[in-house]
Amino acid sequence: MNNRLFSLFTICLFFLGLLQPLATVDAAAATKPLPNIKILATGGTIAGAGTSHTQTVGYTAAVTAVDGLIAAVPELQNIANVSGEQVAQIASEDMTDEVWLKLAKRVNELLASPLVDGIVITHGTDTLEETAYFLNLVVKNDKPVVVVGAMRPATSISADGPMNLYRAVVLAGSAEAAGKGVLVMLNDQINAARDVSKTDTASLDTFKSPGLGLLGIIQNEQVAFYRQPTRRHTSASEFDVQQLSELPRVDIVYGYANNNRTMLDAAVKAGAKGIVHAGTGNGSIHTNLKPAIEAARRQGVVFVRSSRVGSGIVLRGGEFDDDSYGTIAGDNLNPQKARILLMLALIRTSDPAEIQQLFWKY
Length: 362
Ligand code: DGL
Known about the structure:
alpha/beta; Rossmann fold; 2 domains; 4-stranded parallel β-sheet; 11 helices; 18% strand; binds D-glutamic acid
């Protein structure tokens, strides 16, 4: 009898010994402090409301305040200490330089605090890629900054906003997201602010990085990165807007068949310091515009060649004599992003050669 009790006691000790490390791991996981994540709200569909559960177009954007967005996802409390601020409450087609500057300064102020581990920005999808890229160039910190939106209002069946917000907080609280620049999180996919674009007017998987692909994927609470951004961003960026109250005016003119100089001349007359041309093909420009470009250049207006096609490089000196006209090739930035880089470049210089180097670095 004693032998049998001793054997049973020994077996119990053995299994207790096995469980001890697991218990230690569980305890370690349980005692690891949750990340402090600040959610800055600007409006958009993620805060939108429709008149029925089936309406996904034509609803009212920018209705729900940030505390309402947080309350709609109680699971956030399990993964982070979240708190919110309402920076703006607009449909993002109405985004302004003023909101951009307010947002950038608040992000930099918050990230400078050791009490903030990451930031999530809720935003309309129409100009989400622009705000994300602007922040990618002016945020002076390597902590995660994640921009998130939704394609369906919170009132719709299978609204995507709550899960997108949850994943964005997971990402902002992850060590893997640090140092990768501003990230865009929708539909379980992680894209780089520099590369991503809204590619469909209504589909849930509208955000793509054409020709380049996503950076990573989130499933449940698991963050997986497969690529790194290669161009300069955030703490490696030379651009600083902390003391600015406005940004240089840069307009975009569109290229198409039978084009004429009217819109280009109007932009110059309106005071544009820079112009981005959304050209055909490899940044090609209709002959009718060439005299207008020469006139704009004589007035010191800086001119960047981009392309309307959506992906690929606009090659310097490829389809246009950039050296002769003093124009700049926009690399693979789409027109709306080339505009942002040109705006920030013009704060530092109006020299085309210097700005061309910036388009090759950022
Ligand atoms: N009004 C658009 C915007 O705020 C709706 C698109 C969206 O947020 O998904 O960008």
